[in-house]
Write a structure and sequence with these properties.
The chain is an alpha+beta fold. The protein has helices spanning 12-23, 47-55, 59-64, 107-120, 170-173, 242-248, 252-263, 265-270, 315-334, 346-368, 370-380, 382-389, 402-411, 449-454; strands at residues 2-8, 29-32, 69-70, 72-76, 83-87, 89-91, 97-99, 102-103, 124-127, 129-135, 141-147, 153-163, 180-182, 188-196, 213-219, 222-228, 234-241, 275-276, 281-284, 288-290, 294-295, 298-300, 306-307. The radius of gyration is 21 Å and the shape is globular.
Amino acid sequence: MKTDVLIIGGGPGGATAAMFLIREGIKPIILEQEAFPRFHIGESMTGEAAQVLRRLGFGDEMIRRKHPVKHGVRVFGTTGVNSWYIPVAARDKEWNLSLASTWQVRRSEFDVMMLKAAEARGATVMQGTATKPLLADDGAVRGVTVRWPDGKSENIETEVVLDCSGMATFLANQRVTGPKYVGSYDKQIAFFSHVTGAIRDTGTSGEEARSNTLIFYQNKFHWAWFIPIDEDVVSMGLVTPKATFVETKQSPEEFFRHTIPAINPDLRRRVADMKLIEKVHVIPNYSYQVRRFCGEGFICIGDAHRFIDPIFSFGLSATMREAEFAAPAVRAYLEGKGRDKANPFTGHQLFCEKGIDNLEDMVDMFWEQPFAFALFAHNRYRDELIDAFAGRIYENERQPSAAILAFRKSLKRTRDYEHEDDYSIPIGSRFHPERAALWEPNSPIATTEEWMVARPS
């Protein structure tokens, strides 16, 4: 079987990439190993993620489906009394700022909508599992071997593979990319479920809107999220150091029920009558960066190459935006541009990496100096942080802003992009210098229930 572009993964990244490729005149194959609908975390959208949907023509559909409207993010301090708020806001062509909104989504429904739309617009969706890449003598990716549901295998030859496999990081685990580094956030573990009976705010817009994202801070690396995903259900999760959980010797559900009320006083009052309607899921080891995530015949998108602390819900936004950015780069490659280069997608790679670096510096500043961060959010750099929270983190969006540069100064951090081979050397939160590259090629970083079985008792 042959195709111009093969997309591994039918989630929002893969579906978004497919729809933008179709606009470029390219009809890809999407390979998805799971049957949809399926449960997935990552339900809160930034303002710029909503703009991607609008550019794809989903604005009216999101309204018709009555997805909860998010007007902003409120972060509660340790006592639950003090908080700070960042609204969703947009920029016009003159770079004027105005209030806007985005959506919260139930991923089982949203992902189906996106994948079906990609198929309806011209993508071919196939259920199967990518097992290994097909490599040319020079190391270029020329396709993948697929195992179909009936157990048979087949090679799919292609000009470009887009790895949208998320935390499974298919091409990194196959050592097609550069090394995959784990970061200090890999010491954390996330527990999450869907609940009813949680108390929301009561407003219809602005700071008190009932569908805003709420974040509850306890202390460094101890926090919880509260994301309404329909009129009754809230996605709720908590993150703590992995050692804290292991020491309790509790099951995930026991730990979740016990720890959620203890994270923050304001959260405690909201969950007194909560009822779990979904099992408690677990993700350990979720911080990593893949070097050289683009090359001849391949691009890794979103979580397939990098993931940092999810506290401000940037994962869905970064994945969808990178998918949009990749489409014209793929078209240019198919037309012959960069075919004489070892990495035809160097410009795309650097552009994406700089954007996530800006995001990482912001998240690290929040954890390392939370009081200074709150001051910046309230006063000194409010507009710049409104931009960052909206997902405007790329260099064509006036980044790094004065806020990001101030964060780097406070963190005693520099970013050097002068040398192509050096720019992505990990620094800051995601890198243990003493451990270097750490991963087993056949063990995805995001094992869940399997890890629970093997954890120390």
